[in-house]
């Protein structure tokens, strides 16, 4: 059973399993060079930058991000 998420532009984005993500991480590390910690740091930084871009300065919202 394939699961999909729909973007704001109505584009279907397939979900992946935990096993598939582990394999994606392994391939990325072996073929492109960053280690797992560097990949997690890049993901966190890019998430923070995306949130900063989306928030209006005057709104001052509280934001909680939980990862695991």
Write the layout of secondary structure elements.
Layout: E1 4-6, E2 12-14, H1 18-32, H2 36-54
Antiparallel strand pairs: 1-2
How does this model look, in words?
This protein is mainly alpha-helical and 68 residues long. It has one domain. 50% of the residues lie in helices and 9% in strands. The chain has 2 helices and 2 strands. It has helices spanning 18-32, 36-54; strands at 4-6, 12-14. It has a two-stranded antiparallel sheet. The longest helix is centred in the middle third of the chain and has 19 residues, at 36-54. The protein starts with a strand and ends in a 14-residue tail after the last helix.
Give, in order, the helices and strands. EEHH
Counted beta strands? 2
| Main beta sheet | 2 strands, antiparallel
Q: Name the shape in a single word.
A: extended
Based on helices, strands and strand pairing, what is the structural class? mainly alpha
User: Residue ranges: pLDDT <50 for 5 or more in a row?
Assistant: none
What is the topology, as strand order, of the major beta sheet? 1-2
Q: Which range best describes the helical content: under 10%, 10-25%, 25-40%, 40-55%, 55-70% or over 70%?
A: 40-55%
Work out the helix count. 2
Q: What value does the Rg take, in angstroms? A: 16 Å
Give the count of structural domains.
1
Mean pLDDT: 83
Strand composition percent: 5-15%
- State the end-to-end distance: 24 Å
